[in-house]
Design goal:
heterodimer; A: alpha/beta; Rossmann fold; 2 domains; seven-stranded parallel sheet; five-stranded parallel sheet; B: alpha/beta; five-stranded mixed sheet; three-stranded parallel sheet; 6 helices
């Protein structure tokens, strides 16, 4: 493989997302294998000062497009900046995080570069000088290993799967400011409306406390919110509870919702139907709390408690308070 | 719209380990395209106009076309191919080639197919046609030749305005699909279906192998009720080391 590895290092506001560090780490690993450089691209507003911090993860060069019109992800503007850079440096590989922005941007770049995206990858390897990407399909019921014809190879990386690792010693990346000609666009990105206090997204959360049909109604999610809040996690939901209107779709974990891979997933009153299972099976540790000892979730959870969620969850919240108070 | 196995289907791998066997699956309209179609029909009901559905797929796609026509589409374009490459760039190029001959204001896609999870076709088609595309939308309003769409992103929504014609990809929350009545199912058979051959270019994506994910072995039940809670916390800390 010839040409640098280009990484879209995504920011949220003025700070890099965790997935930016994950992508740069993976790019560094591939660059060592194919003896090339890691070239990161940072787009946003007020992001210039943080660019050099990508050296901690092994970036050799960082190109920065920093101006107010780039504060929020704008498909046309971001696409143009990334495409211009790709055409200039002829990368062998382009990595993007499989976030809402990355999943929007990657196919736009790919089609202009006459290629396709290996989407939502969970593993990359180089075999006989070829990039092989592992990606789940059918919501993770199967894993595909794919390769792509032509160059560059474009891949999006599923958040939380690749581990961000600092390199020693850190690199001192060359920083380049990109001058940027605003392309013709018929889209105006107006504003970001936050869902509220919930800062972390499910796909990026380390701890998820999820509730299903067994929660009985929307008012009962308070006990899950309490547990999540003590543990610094976020609340998720099964399709049954979203379809019942108890929780918004943005909380849904499963085949028609989010695919998550937290360190700890606590499933409360969730039976574990295949639809749900495929969305959370890549969690590092799964805990199930369910009153039905025959529930399928006990077949793949690491730890289970058979019991009433309305008794067990508040008790767990109290115990976690004690735990986090001490540690 | 895409013809996909129902999400409750158990997926089998072919004997050569290079593809997925779907022959005994029940096929449906890709769920995200159902939300998109419902949005199209609602726009028609509000602003008048016509809804055309387009699909690339085998003869058997007729069943989902009839379903879509029953759900409120006025006509269909069936780009018929028994062996179309399972490649988003090839699909996008075929759709874009067809749409160059069709006039439209709003182009709706599902955000992804629930089979291959590629999530690429919508924005690729829009790029090929040079029109705006707002992905993962949960709300769409059209007025005076302008669309206001809400796209779902991490932690919130982004409000985007686009002038028509524009493309959009539907997230689940966009609409609640309606059910077709028996009368509508019958009437669907009288609606026009234009059958054509798609422009079929080779894809760039090659499947090397298909595997089942490594099995997750069942863990252990720590106990019943609140008594098991302290044990769980201890184990999460000492054994699993996740807290």
């Amino acid at each position: 493989m010839q040409g640098p590895i280009l990484v879209f290092a995504e920011s949220s506001g003025r700070e890099f997302r965790k997935s930016a560090f994950e992508s740069v780490t993976e790019a560094r690993r591939l660059a060592e294998l194919s003896k090339t450089e890691v070239h990161a691209l940072s787009i946003g507003h007020g992001v210039k000062d943080q660019a050099s911090s990508l050296g901690k993860f092994g970036a050799d060069k960082v190109s920065v497009a920093d101006e107010e019109s780039l504060k929020l992800f704008h498909p046309d503007l971001y696409r143009q900046i990334a495409l211009d850079l790709a055409n200039k440096i002829n990368p062998s590989v382009i990595l993007l995080p499989a976030t809402s922005s990355g999943k929007d941007l990657a196919p736009r770049l790919a089609i202009h570069l006459n290629t396709v995206v290996a989407a939502d990858c969970t593993e990359l390897e180089i075999r006989n000088d070829e990039l092989i990407a592992t990606r789940p399909a059918y919501a993770g019921k199967v894993l595909l290993k794919v390769k792509m014809k032509g160059n560059p190879k474009v891949a999006t990386l599923r958040p939380n799967v690749f581990t961000a690792r600092e390199v020693t010693p850190p690199t001192s990346p060359r920083i380049e400011s990109l001058s940027f000609q605003k392309p013709v666009t018929r889209m105006t990105v107006k504003e970001f409306v936050t869902h509220g206090a919930k800062k972390q997204d499910l796909t990026e959360a380390g701890i998820i406390v999820s509730g299903g049909r067994g929660m009985g109604g929307p008012e009962n999610y308070k006990i899950l919110e309490d547990l999540a809040s003590v543990m610094g996690g976020v609340v998720g939901a099964s399709r049954a509870s979203v379809d019942a209107g108890w929780r918004p779709h943005s909380d849904q974990v499963g085949q028609t919702g989010r695919t998550v891979s937290p360190t700890l997933y606590i499933a409360c009153g969730i039976s574990g139907a295949i639809q749900h299972r495929v969305g959370m099976i890549n969690s590092k540790v799964i805990v199930a709390i369910n009153k039905d000892p025959e529930a399928p979730i006990f077949g793949f959870a690491d730890y289970g408690i058979v019991g009433d969620v309305f008794e067990v969850v508040p008790a767990l919240t109290q115990e976690m308070k004690k735990y986090y108070g001490k540690n | 719209m895409r013809r996909v196995p129902d999400t409750a289907t158990r997926i089998k791998i072919s004997p050569d380990g290079k593809s997925v066997v779907t022959s005994d699956a029940e096929f449906v309209i890709n769920p995200y395209e159902e939300y998109a179609l419902e949005q199209g029909v609602q726009l028609k009901e509000k602003h008048s106009g016509e809804v055309t559905v387009l699909t690339i797929g085998p003869e058997k796609s007729t069943s989902i076309i009839l379903k879509a026509l029953a759900l409120g589409a006025d006509r269909a374009i069936h780009l018929k191919s028994e062996n179309f490459p399972d490649d988003p760039s090839a699909v996008a190029r075929a759709i874009a080639a067809e749409l160059k001959t069709v006039e439209f204001d709003v182009l709706l896609f599902g955000k992804k197919g629930v089979d291959d999870d590629n999530q690429q076709v919508g924005p690729m088609v829009a790029e090929l046609l040079g029109i705006p595309c707002v992905t993962q939308i949960v709300k769409l309003d059209i007025s005076a030749g302008k669309a206001t769409a809400h796209r779902e992103v991490e932690g919130g929504l982004i409000v985007v305005e686009a002038t028509l014609p524009s493309a959009f990809t539907a997230e689940k929350d966009l609409t609640v699909p309606r059910y077709a009545s028996l009368r509508e199912l019958v009437a669907a058979r009288k609606k026009p279906i234009l059958v054509k051959e798609p422009q079929q270019l080779p894809g760039a994506l090659e499947i090397v192998s298909v595997q089942y994910p490594p099995p997750r072995s069942p863990g252990r039940v720590l106990g019943k009720g609140v008594e098991a809670v302290p044990i769980l916390v201890k184990i999460l800390h000492e054994e699993a080391k996740v807290i």
